[in-house]
Recover the amino acids of this structure.
């Protein structure tokens, strides 16, 4: 079992007390014994020497009474002097203190030379120990006598014994006292260390709401007589204000602990409240934990923000249709977005950490790596378009490789960004075609304008000749044929000119139903000859639209002719108009004709696109209509085959016999604002031809 | 060491053999007396072949009594004690000491503290406390008393007259008592100040007056001591000379310059003084 701090202090204390106390006791006892013995000896010598001094005169005077008095007094006054006697220069006993005769053996057991101060012998009488002292009596350097006294050791022994006991008792008492004080101290230290340890344990378990330092006995606001409630240390009994930044005392230095603590040492609050080293440790620990807690919260907040940002960035990256990847200098993928994963056909985990050699065929990977190296070495970005995939599913990709620079300006990798531009490519192709068509149109218009005049002359001369020849003659028939085909040519030229020339529009509020009615009067006769019936479903009280009456009439005639051409003969055309809310007017032309093949439906508004036989259509009618509708801010859409309900309705006519799929064109025009003056059409000139 | 204290015996002193006893008037302690005289005593024993032994009476009276009782054969005393012994017990002077400073006679001194402003002349001693050596002391009391009387100052004129405590060391005690301020004036034999020079600062002591000269210390034989012995001793004493190193040491220890022959008549001046003082020498 491991000893705790408190036990260690206890054991150390006990050990020190035993060793130290024992040592002191042994040394002190020895010193004391020697000192007492020395004192005893010196006392014996002093008594004997005094006796010798006092005895000089009576010895010279041979005053035995005085000598006897002297030795008796020496024994009487000093209770530890057992006996005293004086020998003359012939070693005869002059006087002694023994009541019944002088002990014979005693006389010779101790002697002293003239040159000695004294002589000491320890005698054992059987009953007790006696120090016998012999001191010479010298007068003018002559030996007259010897003084002998016997000093009992009993008293010395008693003194030594009681002093030893006293020492032992003192040592034990001091040891007990020290032990008690030590125990109290050890307990105080141990308890506080234990509390600190528990707090650390709590912190390690994640609980940062610990308080190890005790509540302060005096509060800073009481000491400073302060009522600044906005001070962060105010009414916080567990806080040490010298650890708190931003306290409001006038003596406080602004700033964190490191800046203000020097000034705090002088503060009366610090003087009154700061504790010993362990309390300081506990307070520092609390401060540290509090700071840690704050930092952790900040870190958590930063982490959340970062995570949010990362998610946002990832969402953006993943949402963008472009594919993006980041590679390091070794072309190892570090980050990719979803579009990139899709185009490569692997998951993010399978891509990140790998190179092109792991993802693409060898030749492709090698080419990529060479491009990468070029960007990395030159620092210039690379842009290219390339076609990938097989012939039936080939796609165009626009690719950009950009060098990525680190904080020190060195290139640390490259960013590759690409997008699928297949659709864009198609539009480009279409645009190119349109431009081509426009050029052709302009060319055609020029040619048509030049041809128009000679055609007029041909038709004019043909009509003059017709008037002059007999109607039954072959010539007449031939002239008629010339005139007819010249008329066809004129019509073509006229359409070409209308298509190519952007004639100025005269915009005014127009009623769509009137326009339809006028257009029908132009074509109804022709349609009737071929048994094509026109059915009208015009909604009354339509709001007007703003437009050029002539151009709108042309558009409707073109749609009707197109429907008639699709039917050929024996069918039904349904013209309808309606309002859509307050802001839009629509009209539609549906036929029970053969319909438009699905592959051609996208091209029907292209100029010169026609499904009719040579000489039957110019391929410009629908194109012109599209242009007019667009000019009026409207839309035109085509639907083929017909919706079921409409097909059912139109199918009751002749169209049923002809595999009638039918087509419907719907035109939407914005309604004019209220109060507009309506303009009536002045009739459509020209011919009813079935272009479409 | 193991000692058996139970075996006891009553001891008796061995009898001293016959000897010529020599005593020095105990004006000093026995130890000082011994120190001063033991060389002289040894010299006498050696040169005369007699067993001369110094004994130590405790006071002046005992000295006189012991001579009268025959316990002292040879006395070395001051002239007053001598005349007393001669008149009472028939002692006979045969030699006398020459003082250290070479005079045949000696005198007493009256002293006080040097810083005592009240005492400048002998007359100032009136009403003062006087400490003297001993009622029998010549230089230490009787000579100064005679001097006071000659100058018209009677014993009653003093606040009190005390004598130094004994036994022995009385001359020194007088100096010490005055020095300590216990008494205003003191009377001593001339030469005492030199004896105490090693104990006190004698410059602090002032000599107010010296008495007239009287004969010095005297060697006397008890009545009945055989004349040949006296003569032998007198011869040996008078032979002592400062010129012989060993003898010089003897004389210096005894604090005398030399010894000359004397006779009883030499001390009549002392007898006269005693008479003046009203002393009865026969008591």
């Amino acid at each position: 079992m491991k000893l705790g701090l408190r036990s260690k202090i206890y054991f150390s204390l006990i050990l020190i007390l035993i060793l130290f106390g024992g040592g002191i006791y042994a040394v002190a006892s020895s010193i004391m014994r020697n000192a007492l013995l020395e004192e005893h000896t010196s006392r014996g010598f002093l008594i004997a020497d005094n006796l010798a001094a006092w005895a000089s005169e009576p010895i010279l005077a041979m005053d035995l009474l005085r000598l006897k008095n002297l030795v008796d007094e020496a024994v009487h006054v000093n209770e530890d002097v057992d006996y005293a006697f004086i020998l003359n220069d012939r070693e005869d006993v002059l006087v002694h203190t023994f009541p019944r005769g002088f002990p014979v053996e005693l006389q010779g057991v101790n002697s002293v030379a003239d040159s000695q101060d004294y002589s000491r012998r320890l005698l054992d009488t059987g009953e007790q120990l006696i120090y016998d002292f012999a001191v010479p009596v010298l007068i003018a350097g002559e030996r007259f006598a010897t003084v002998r006294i016997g000093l009992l050791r009993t008293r010395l022994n008693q003194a030594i014994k009681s002093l030893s006991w006293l020492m032992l008792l003192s040592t034990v008492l001091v040891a007990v006292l020290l032990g008690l004080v030590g125990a109290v101290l050890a307990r105080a230290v141990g308890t506080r260390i234990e509390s600190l340890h528990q707090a650390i344990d709590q912190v390690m378990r994640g609980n940062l709401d610990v308080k190890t330092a005790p509540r302060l006995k005096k509060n800073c606001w009481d000491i400073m007589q302060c009522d600044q409630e906005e001070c962060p240390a105010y009414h916080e009994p567990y806080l040490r204000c010298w650890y708190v930044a931003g306290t409001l005392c006038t003596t406080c230095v602004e700033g964190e602990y490191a800046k203000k603590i020097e000034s705090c040492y002088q503060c009366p609050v610090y003087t009154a409240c700061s504790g010993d080293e362990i309390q300081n440790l506990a307070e520092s620990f609390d401060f540290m934990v509090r700071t840690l807690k704050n930092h952790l919260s900040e870190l958590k907040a930063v982490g959340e923000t970062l995570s949010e940002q990362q998610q946002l960035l990832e969402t953006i990256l993943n949402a963008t249709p472009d594919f993006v990847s980041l590679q390091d200098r070794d072309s190892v993928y570090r980050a990719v977005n979803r579009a990139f994963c899709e185009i490569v056909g692997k998951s993010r985990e399978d891509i990140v950490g790998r190179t092109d050699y792991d993802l693409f065929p060898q030749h492709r990977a090698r080419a990529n790596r060479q491009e990468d190296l070029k960007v990395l070495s030159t620092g210039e970005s690379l842009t290219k378009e390339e076609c990938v995939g097989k012939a039936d599913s080939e796609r165009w990709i626009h690719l950009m490789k950009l060098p990525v620079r680190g904080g020190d300006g060195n290139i640390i990798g490259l960013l590759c960004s690409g997008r699928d531009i297949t659709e864009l490519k198609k539009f480009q192709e279409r645009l190119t075609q349109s431009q081509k068509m426009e050029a052709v149109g302009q060319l055609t218009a020029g040619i048509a304008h030049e041809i128009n005049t000679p055609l007029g002359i041909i038709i004019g001369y043909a009509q003059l000749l017709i008037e002059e020849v007999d109607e039954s003659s072959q010539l007449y028939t031939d002239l008629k044929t010339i005139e007819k085909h010249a008329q066809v040519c004129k019509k073509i030229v006229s359409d070409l000119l209308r298509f190519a020339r952007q004639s100025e529009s005269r915009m005014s509020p127009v009623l769509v139903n009137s326009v339809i009615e006028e257009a029908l009067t132009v074509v109804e006769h022709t349609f009737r000859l071929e048994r094509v019936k026109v059915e009208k479903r015009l909604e009354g009280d339509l709001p007007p639209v703003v437009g050029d009456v002539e151009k709108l009439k042309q558009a409707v005639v073109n749609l009707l002719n197109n429907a008639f051409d699709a039917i050929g003969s024996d069918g039904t055309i349904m013209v309808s108009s309606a309002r859509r809310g307050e802001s839009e007017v629509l009209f539609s032309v549906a036929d029970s004709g053969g319909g438009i093949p699905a592959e051609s439906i996208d091209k029907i508004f292209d100029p010169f696109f026609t499904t009719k036989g040579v000489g039957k259509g110019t391929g410009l009618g629908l194109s012109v209509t599209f242009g007019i509708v667009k000019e009026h801010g409207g839309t035109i859409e085509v639907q083929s085959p017909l919706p079921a309900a409409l097909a059912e309705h139109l199918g009751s006519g002749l169209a049923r016999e002809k595999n009638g799929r039918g087509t419907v064109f719907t035109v939407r025009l914005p309604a004019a604002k209220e109060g507009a003056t309506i303009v009536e059409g002045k009739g459509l000139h020209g011919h009813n031809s079935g272009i479409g | 060491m193991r000692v058996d204290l139970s075996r006891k015996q009553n001891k008796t002193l061995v009898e001293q053999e016959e000897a010529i006893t020599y005593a020095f008037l105990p004006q000093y302690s026995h130890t000082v007396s011994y120190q001063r005289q033991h060389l002289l005593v040894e010299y006498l024993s050696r040169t005369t072949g007699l067993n001369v032994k110094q004994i130590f009476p405790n006071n002046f009276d005992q000295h006189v009594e012991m001579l009268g009782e025959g316990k002292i054969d040879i006395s070395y005393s001051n002239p007053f004690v001598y005349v007393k012994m001669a008149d009472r017990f028939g002692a006979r002077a045969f030699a006398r000491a020459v003082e250290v400073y070479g005079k045949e006679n000696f005198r007493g001194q009256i002293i006080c503290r040097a810083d005592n402003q009240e005492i400048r002349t002998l007359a100032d001693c009136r009403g003062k406390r006087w400490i003297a050596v001993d009622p029998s002391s010549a230089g230490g009391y009787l000579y100064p008393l005679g001097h006071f009387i000659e100058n018209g100052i009677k014993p009653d004129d003093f606040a009190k007259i005390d004598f130094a405590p004994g036994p022995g060391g009385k001359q020194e005690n007088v100096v010490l008592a005055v020095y300590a301020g216990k008494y205003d004036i003191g009377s001593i034999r001339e030469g005492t100040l030199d004896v105490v020079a090693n104990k006190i600062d004698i410059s602090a002591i002032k000599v107010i007056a010296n008495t007239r000269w009287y004969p010095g210390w005297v060697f006397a034989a008890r009545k009945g001591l055989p004349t040949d012995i006296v003569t032998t001793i007198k011869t040996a004493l008078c032979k002592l000379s400062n010129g012989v190193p060993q003898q010089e040491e003897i004389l210096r220890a005894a604090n005398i310059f030399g010894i000359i022959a004397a006779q009883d008549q030499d001390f009549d001046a002392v007898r006269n003084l005693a008479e003046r003082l009203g002393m009865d020498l026969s008591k």
User: Anything to note?
Assistant: Chain B touches chain A through 26 residues (CB under 8 Å). Chain B has two domains: 20-103+215-277, 108-212. The domain at 108-212 of chain B is CATH 3.40.190.10 (D-Maltodextrin-Binding Protein; domain 2).
